[in-house]
Amino acid sequence: VRAFVAAHKPAFKLAQELALIFIVYTVFCRTFEAGTEAPAQDIVIMVALQGVLLVAFKAVVWVLLGLLFPFSPRLLFTGFFFGVHKTVAMGVPLLHAVYEGNPLLGMYAVPLLVWHPMQLLLGSAAAPALRR
What we know:
By secondary structure, this protein is mainly α. α3 (40-68) runs antiparallel to α4 (73-82), α3 (40-68) crosses α6 and α5 packs antiparallel against α6 (105-131). The protein is 82% helix and 0% strand. The mean pLDDT is 83. The protein has helices at residues 2-7, 9-33, 40-68, 73-82, 88-98, 105-131.
């Protein structure tokens, strides 16, 4: 089995990414098909607030890990990238399990669907500076 997985690793990676895209697509479709009571202004405020919270949480993790592990830059960098990491692949199925049948399920998923790409963007932007 291990040899098969190793030989087909790119195919498994692609399948994983396509499954994630499908999950995100279906959650968005459900959200907007059922309609939403939230005006666009509230969604923009939520996105902005999540951006501020993500930067603040990453700063807190950076400071705390810097105090706890002052001589371990690898732990500091790992904590910066994974200390507040949330994944769509784990969060969306969990939301579906908890709120199954709730008409607002899509709205509950929007913060997670925004948080995940923000993590990727912030991490990509910070990586060159942290590399030095």
